[in-house]
Amino acid sequence: MKFNKWTLGLAAVGVVSMASAVRADETKLSALNTAVSSTVISGYVDVAAQYNAGSPSPRESAYAAYQPTTGYNGAAVNNGKVDNFSLNDVVISLDKALDESPWASGYHVDLNWGADAISPANGTPVRQAYVTLRTPVGNGIDWKVGGFDGVTGYEGNTAYSNPNYTRSYGYEVNPASELGMIGSYKIVDGVSVQAGLGNRYSGNSVGLSSKDFIFAAALTAPDSWGWIKGSTLNAGTVQTFDNGGINNYSVSATIATPVTGLKFGAAYDIVQSLQSSKDGNIFGVYGTYQATDKLAFNVRGEYVDTTDLPLINGYNQFGFTNHKGEEVTATVEYDLWANVVSRVEFRWDHTEHGVAFNNGGFSETPSNENAFLLALNLVYKF
After folding, report:
1. ∠ at Cα 271 (145, 236), nearest 5°?
2. Which end of the chain is less crowded, N or C, counting CB atoms within 10 A of the terminal residue's CB?
3. Residue 6: pLDDT above 50?
4. What is the CATH T-level fold of the domain 39-381, as seen in this structure?
5. In the chain, what are the domain boundaries?
6. What is the CB neighbour count within 10 angstroms for residue 73?
7. How do residues 129-142 score in pLDDT, each as one tens digit?
């Protein structure tokens, strides 16, 4: 085959073009790899088996309506869990944390599916999705803009981080999530505050009067305080100026003790109905003993007094007929397998001076003042 100078010239141009294209692709791939390498992927799978003592109706939906609010988002989550196996939550998290630069940026996403899935954005499977930004004011203000977990209450949305499998009544009255923006500022070591603004009613509110105004403060005992080091005190409120809205107030503390592995907690939550100008009060106490690296014992007790709040169809939002009741929960956790939280839990709920739980056979109305629950919970973290 013969080559002239034009053929060789065109070949040279083609080689240069291909090399340029390869370099461009490599540059794009390098940028993609850099972005992906700075993102951390994690999550967990939460499953359970639950037994509810009593006389369940053949129609489980009716029976479940007269069970305590033991999960996320109110009484409805009991449907499908009563005397059943349940897929509670599958969470996949993507996180690009803020670095130390004064104008740092990042993001966080929690995707969740299951009976306990939370969605601040119109039923999507997104529990959290926010952009993180830092503004170099003072010690630096770190912002979250988007959908994020609520900041009030003793217990949080991440199931395995709570001391018990079932959720508290205090958890039920605090907003699980917000859609808006919130800023965090560390005043000094061990003292931080948060303030923000969010939509009310799952993002369907209109105007400032129907927004959530959020404020929270946290104190942590320093190492120099001896055995009480690491103890925390948290206070927060969610305020709305909508006459049909609800205000929340929450104070909680976790106190270390001189006994290794032993901690106590306390929580006081107030839910205030602006429509009726009435309050509900929930008092909670916690005890945790980490006996070994694998074995832990957790106990919770609560007293609910929502006497001032109006009844709905003869019951308050927790099912108590006269607005008063208690619950005691005991949980044993033994993490036998790597990356697995495994726990067994017994819970007793009681309503004062009335009946609120179970159906009593074929009846469509509650027949017992007590409810009992036994559950096995397994959570794999990755």
Report:
1. 45
2. N
3. no
4. Porin (2.40.160)
5. 1-37, 39-381
6. 16
7. 999 999 999 999 99
